[in-house]
Structures are given as C-alpha cells and as structure tokens.
C-alpha cells in the first residue's frame, strides 16, 4: 500500500505553501496541495490515501463548503480552516463529521492548524479506554467523537476489567463516563489503585460529570483524576482538554525515556538499571525464583581509543551494546558507563545462561573485526547469588575482574 499523504486545500497559494513548509519540518509524510474542488477531486481520483486534510471553507469553485462535504463523503479526516465559523449552512448534517475546526484569524492559527493535523495523524495510534457502565446516548456520542478524531477506543463496563487489562497494556488516557451509575466507592477505589501504579503524568484520567455534580468531579480530581468534562461541553472543548492531557503525558514519557536511556548506545543507563533491577529482584525473591547478574567489559579499551581514535571506540561500545541486547533480549540490559555493561534477569537454567554468555564472548571476538573494522574482546563476570541486588552486582564485578586478571576474553563465575 502506498504511503498516505497530508492534504492542504486552500486557494490562497501563499498560505498553502507556508502550511506545507511548517508541516514538512515536523513530519516525513508527503504533503499535497490543492487550490480548488476540481483539483481535489482529480487528486483523489488517483487513489491516493489521505491521512488528514486541512480544508479552507470557501473556494472559488466551491463557495459553500462543497469541498469539505466532498472530503467527508470520502471518509477523510478533515479539519476546517476558515475565517468564519463553520456552521454547515450549506445544508445537511455532514458538518458534524468534521474532525476539528481552526479559525483563520492570526498567524498563530497556521501553527495551530499544523499541530492539529499532526495530532490527528498520531491519534490513530492512541488508545482511549472508556469506563461506561451503561450504553447511554452520551456514551455513544462520546465514542463517535473519539472516532472522528481517529482515537482507538475500548469500552469497559467495570473498573475491574480495566485493572485486569492494565496488567498487559497501558492506554494514553482513561475516560470515566458515568460515575453516577457506578458505585462511588468502587470508582474511588479504582482511581486510587490506578494511581498506585501510574502517576498523573504517566496515565491521565478524565471524568465526565454534569454541571450539577461539579463537586463530585472536584472530589474525583482530589483522588487522582486529572481533569473533567461534562455533557454540556462542545466537541471542541472536549477535544482540547483531551489533547492537552494526552500531550502533557506524552511529554512526560519522552522525558522519562531520555532520563533512563544511555545517549550513546540508546540502551538503558545505570540509574534505570538499578531502579528496575531492584523491583524485579524483589518480585523474584518473593516468588523464590533464582536470578543472574552478568557484567561485561571491553578488554584493553584504552588501547582501542589510543590506537584507533575515540570515534572508533564509540563504535565498539555501540556494537557491544547491540549484541548484548540481541543475545539477552528477554532480560534487562544496561550500559554502566565507559565500556562496562550489565544484564539482569530470572535464571531458568544456569547451563543455558553460561552457554549464552560463552556464545556472546566468542561472537564479539570473531565479529567485532567485521562489524567495526577493529578486533577486540570482552571479559565477563556471572553471578547467581546474593542477598540483594547490590551484593549480587558486586559479586558479578569480582568475577569480571577475575576474568581480567586471568588473561581477559573469559567468563568467570562468582
Ligand atoms: N570512545 C569512548 N571511550 C570511552 C568512553 N567512556 C570511557 N571511555 C574510555 O574507556 C577507557 C577505559 O579504560 P580502562 O578503564 O583503563 O580499561 P581498559 O583499557 O579497557 O583495560 P581493561 O578493562 O583492564 O581491559 C578510558 O580510556 C576512557 O577514556 C566513551 O563513551 N567512548
């Protein structure tokens, strides 16, 4: 299938060009421009898939929003870009199907329009979980509105069902539609339980309350709901709040990713390793399951840097990180800094892990030359005992230094 494209329909050529330029800075998808209804029809006749269209309301050959109507008939997510409020006076109910509306009233509107297009494009990958105990008309209206903005929607009748699904996946936001029809205590308990696993930024929640029940909404917010919306909200008001809550959470996740990732190799860093390994270690101990810690260190790395330069040294580090991730893909792999790495995980079979460590050591010895044009080796230290993660890590480190002292390019056990 060919790549979808963004479509900009505007008879003001300069505006269309500025929009295209701004959009191209932030997206790799192709962008098509049309200046009339006829051009739009010709483009669509080629069979191209439109990701999102931004369409001026009035064009020379379509003075009453006919282009918008045409795009909507083709089921294309369409944002209306107009100097006057789009009221759908051209007859028909199709205006209810527009994904969003942007007022063409200032230079800032161009940035906002681009932001809306990108957001609609991303929404196709965003999950909204809706807790609704009855299939009310409002719940259905909400689902339709979410679909118009391309969100993936899953509905749940009971809080327990959401809890259950949270063990395997996390949505971008949870909407609680009719708390009044659910037992209040159950809703409070649900919010509290969600907040034990996720903070306000990690998983936002919004609650729907009628204007008369505003105090209930505020109480829910005290319990850990981020925001509320009510049945009297316009679609635009609801979309803006939803978008802001999701974007805030996205930014938080992006910062969280940066803070746990090693900049050179893009694998986890030391800080995240200990944070995560401690939790995993506690779970394994509780279940009385064995574990292992593997330390890996490139041999004579100073010499590698001195002989081939720092950049080649970096390539060697990246190569080892990638290979470790491949050989130990089901475990926690991190760079500790410099040329030192660590792996942690559940030990299902000691022989198998030893064999894998050996295979990894031999792979670096034989493949490093081919991949990086310099030949180097690694020393390894393996440990499967210790009262806590720090002790296990120290024991693995001691084993690693035995490998170093015994001639390097070896695996030692604690
Ligand atoms: N290229 C590169 N070098 C780094 C980086 N971080 C640390 N180093 C270098 O890694 C080298 C580590 O050297 P040493 O700790 O003496 O160890 P070694 O030369 O590998 O010797 P053994 O571990 O005993 O085999 C130092 O020269 C550091 O400057 C990095 O991110 N990139």
From TrEMBL:
PROSITE patterns recorded: GGDEF
InterPro entries: CheY-like_superfamily, Diguanylate_Cyclase, GGDEF_dom, Nucleotide_cyclase, Rev_trsase/Diguanyl_cyclase
Residues annotated as domain GGDEF: 289-414
This enzyme's EC code(s): 2.7.7.65
Pfam families: GGDEF (PF00990)
Gene3D superfamilies for this protein: 3.30.70.270, 3.40.50.2300
Top-level taxon of the source organism: Bacteria
Reaction catalyzed: 2 GTP = 3',3'-c-di-GMP + 2 diphosphate
Name assigned to this protein: diguanylate cyclase
Protein source organism: Thiomicrorhabdus marina
Lineage summary: Bacteria, Pseudomonadati, Pseudomonadota, Gammaproteobacteria, Thiotrichales
